[in-house]
Amino acid sequence: MADKYDVIVIGAGPGGYVAAIRAAQMGLKTACVEKWIGKEGKVVHGGTCLNVGCIPSKALLEASHKFVEARDDFSDIGIEASDVKMDVKKMMARKDKIVKNLTGGISGLFKANGVTALEGTGKVLSSKKVEVSNGDDKTTYEAENIIIASGSVPVEIPPTPLTEGLIVDSTGALEFQEVPKRLGVIGAGVIGLELGSVWSRLGSQVTVLEAMDDFLPMVDQAVAKETQKLLKKQGLDILMGARVTGSETNGDEVTVKYTDSKGEQEAVFDKLIVCVGRRPYTKGVLDDDAGIKLDERGFIFVDDHCRTSVPGVYAIGDCVRGQMLAHKASEEGMMVADIIAGHKAEMNYDAIPCVIYTAPEVAWVGMNEQEAKAAGIKVKSGSFPFAASGRAMANNATEGLAKIIADEETDRILGVHIVGQHAGELIAQGVIAMEFGSSAEDLALTCYAHPTMSEAVHEAALAVEGHAIHMANRKKRK
Known about the structure:
Layout: E1 4-10, H1 16-25, E2 30-34, H2 47-52, H3 54-73, H4 88-113, E3 116-119, E4 121-124, E5 129-134, E6 137-148, E7 152-154, E8 167-168, H5 170-173, E9 182-186, H6 190-201, E10 205-210, H7 221-234, E11 237-240, E12 243-250, E13 253-260, E14 263-269, E15 271-274, E16 278-280, E17 313-315, H8 326-340, E18 354-356, E19 361-366, H9 369-374, E20 379-385, H10 390-394, E21 401-407, E22 413-420, H11 423-435, H12 440-444, H13 455-463
Parallel strand pairs: 1-2, 1-6, 2-3, 6-17, 8-15, 9-10, 9-15, 10-11
Antiparallel strand pairs: 4-5, 5-6, 7-16, 12-13, 13-14, 18-19, 19-22, 20-21, 21-22
């Protein structure tokens, strides 16, 4: 038997590495198991988020957005920049460098905090033991507590089996070395819209096929409608109610068959990205005798404090219920580490922000208006367009709006939804407000710096009672 630890974490993604560092900071002897092999053939930390998800996709989104701004928008503000070009290979190299810096940084944080990095595949055995396999070598460790943070993987669908370099998932879409002329994207969710935006900006003719009839149903209807309009204006052809039924590859092309309200359809692409969601990754992570229960969808069953069915074994992040978000996993990791260390810790699942990093960005927290009404809550709302914002005008970024939904009786904020420049940063105001149980009036009475994009949130709060200053109010309130 090898060393015994107070905590062993399986997975070094944004949930696992944060949980491991937090546990070590609490004075617990901690180890973290990771099997991810990076491009240089060595184990790297950071999981999907840092290696093939959040970070590399944002590097490409930012680069492609700057390219479009320079090419199309600089002249609006008096900057003449002719013959602007994008070096795709250089863009990709920069993305890889950022990933390498961040994953290497986690390894440094492990050393600084005293976390033992175990390389290999971790498996939870019975009696709170963890087997770590690295090639033919297998070592079993004992732990007082185990945190499973094994993450998720992209969902594949039978009509479009992955074909190297032609039909790819989100990981493959981050590795294109040239701009495809015709690009198909299956799924108009967060990942599909972000990746479609990257390649559309760089010159691809992008068609997004979405089986659902409603665009971004988790977002407030007013914000979703505005977002769809803006993305269409940018060149994304988003087809709703388009259910993919099959595909055929022919040389360097792929023909996709789908059905919509008009019947059976076909479309030909040079590349096809499949972005229909993610599923929990638990393959090989749980021994049959471990006693850990899964729910009907394959997620590890946990309670509100991420406890599994086995005492002393916890699970966090994408492999458990809830939104598949890096920051949700990180917060769960800290909560669990605190609980193990003997502290009282809670997590407010009603105040987790979501962001789509298109341009403009889309961000939201809490309920949308249609959800609140469906729950029988009487609501009032206020919205404010960035077109009326002085800072938005100065930034040449007047697209979008901010909207606040509040309880009609208590004025408590139920949700905040924003589409606009820096929406991912602005939404933090809504998160903090909801975390402290704020009313719309609390935000309305807050002094905001002028001129800033965040004033749109202030005006939306004022608009809840019909008191927006820089917009004609439809209805006056007392």
